[in-house]
Design brief:
By secondary structure, this protein is mostly beta strands. It contains 3 helices and 14 strands. The longest helix is centred in the first third of the chain and has 6 residues. It starts with a helix and ends in a 6-residue tail after the last strand.
Length: 184
């Protein structure tokens, strides 16, 4: 693999104990079940790229965005209750960002197209809820509260007809942000 290819990929190292102690597992792609490599994970170091980490296997449960840096005790830093159980590398995206958000499930109700970050859909579009979306270009993070706060969900290009069917029942998404190249 060339040096250029390495720069295009992400690399994250997980450690069993806080402060980068104990056994480690190096990951450069998606991993659906960390239990195969580590019995627990309490710290990690992102050497390049961006990752979403999940507190359940198979990319389920609460999601957390991690960019390049050291997370010596991420559970207390991020308010996580459980260890990381799976992770997904976020590919670098160059080009435009486009996403359509819908007020109701199955692309119903009011629709708006975004090409940039939106810190509050209520203020910008007078939408009280966003229950489905279609990501045409780029990778996005959606947040349950305005101003990019609260629990989040990672979205890559595709159709998302129902957040409830994805395990986000009762959650409302009120802000969304593009995952930009600056995280690499």
């Amino acid at each position: 693999m060339s040096n250029t290819d390495m720069n295009m990929r992400g690399k994250i190292i997980f450690y069993e104990e806080r402060n980068f102690q104990g056994r480690s597992y190096e990951c450069m792609s998606d991993c659906s079940d960390m239990n195969s490599y580590l019995s627990r994970c309490h710290s990690c170091r992102v050497e390049s790229g961006c990752f979403m980490v999940y507190d359940r296997s198979n990319y389920m449960g609460n999601q957390y965005f991690m960019r390049r840096g050291e997370y010596a005790d991420y559970m207390s830093m991020m308010g996580m209750r459980d260890c990381i159980r799976s992770c997904r590398m976020i590919p670098m995206h160059r080009g435009q960002y486009r996403m359509r958000i819908y007020e109701r499930e199955n692309f119903g109700g009011q629709m708006h197209e975004l090409m940039d970050d939106c810190n509050n859909i209520m203020d910008r579009y007078r939408m009280s809820d966003c229950m489905s979306c279609n990501v045409m270009d780029g990778h996005w993070l959606m947040y349950e509260q305005p101003n990019y706060r609260g629990r989040m969900m990672y979205l890559r290009p595709g159709e998302y007809r129902s957040y409830r069917d994805m395990g986000f029942s009762g959650m409302r998404f009120m802000s969304m942000r593009r995952i930009m190249d600056s995280c690499h």
